[in-house]
Design brief:
The chain is mainly alpha-helical. The protein is about 35% helix and about 5% strand. The longest helix has 23 residues.
């Protein structure tokens, strides 16, 4: 009697599985296994603040529309990332660069209608992102 678990689903990975884009490939691979219409991509080392959890109902409300299938509906809602560093001036510089790109530049892109998913902690319409080729 074989006591090993049998896989339920098999996903063929493109290319050599050891080389890849890291976070992006992992998020794309996880998408078929997600439940629900929306996905939030976060880092494994990202902190979860209670205050941010209180914002989730309001953030999900941003996706609500008056009629089903509305093409004007939001596809992605960005959350700010809080970066703290106590490893000296290099850590402070890296945190400042992250704030400059992740907050200031992304808000400028959003005003132009070209908001990109930078990696975390954005909430996005899962079906739309899969139709566009992935996260």
């Amino acid at each position: 009697e074989d006591l090993r678990r049998a896989p339920r689903f098999r996903i063929e990975l493109p290319g050599y599985p050891i080389l890849g884009d890291g976070k992006g490939d992992n998020q794309n691979h996880a998408a078929p296994f997600m439940r629900g219409a929306f996905a939030q991509c976060i880092d494994a080392n990202q902190g979860g603040y209670f205050e941010q959890a209180l914002l989730l109902p309001c953030a999900l409300g941003e996706f609500r529309t008056r009629r089903r299938g509305d093409c004007e509906a939001k596809k992605i809602v960005g959350f700010p990332e809080h970066i703290t560093s106590n490893i000296g001036s290099i850590g402070d510089f890296a945190a400042s660069a992250e704030v400059a790109f992740g907050t200031i530049l992304q808000r400028s892109y959003a005003a132009l209608g070209a908001r990109m998913h930078y990696g975390h902690p954005d909430i996005m319409n899962k079906v739309y992102m899969m139709q566009q080729g992935g996260v």
